[in-house]
Amino acid sequence: MPIQSAKFIKSAYKPNQSPEERYPEIIITGRSNVGKSSLINALTGRKELAKVGKKPGKTTLINFFLIDEERYLVDFPGYGYAKKSKAQRSAWLDMMQDYLTRKNDIVDILVLINSHLPLQDTDQTFLELLVDAGLPFSIVLTKTDKVNQSALHHHTIALKAFVSWLGRENIKIIHTSSVKSRGTEKVLDYIRQQIIT
Prior knowledge:
alpha/beta; Rossmann fold; seven-stranded mixed sheet; 7 strands; globular
């Protein structure tokens, strides 16, 4: 069943700046230019709901989108963008960690990872942060239209091995391509399941 309504509510920098009306939250995060905005637009069927920046690292705030008047998709700033200063990248990581450890409305964290790149150090660091904090997360491999099936298979196996090494078993990994709308229904169904349960 497709999303019936989706609207931008507000941007925030700190947890206490979140919308006053509380709903379950699905966090969407990942490296800069991994396709977070494109995935949000593909999921909601609104081409310009989340602004797709021409330059990586454009999103610097936490953006809240209300979905079907019953849950938030929360778009985090992209982490790991090389052209941002080390201090800026550190500040963003601190902001995300502060938000994730303070909020208790979080149902799941969708960590977007580029399918046609090796697992980056910043991805590893962020996944370690989530495991250390005991937070729930799932992995969404993006841009699968840019990689062949063999490479995608090996990337998926490597990801599962790394997460297992961190101590998490049976992590959900979903393959998507916003360009071809591949996998978006699986992500949507998974979000609904998380909300219901």
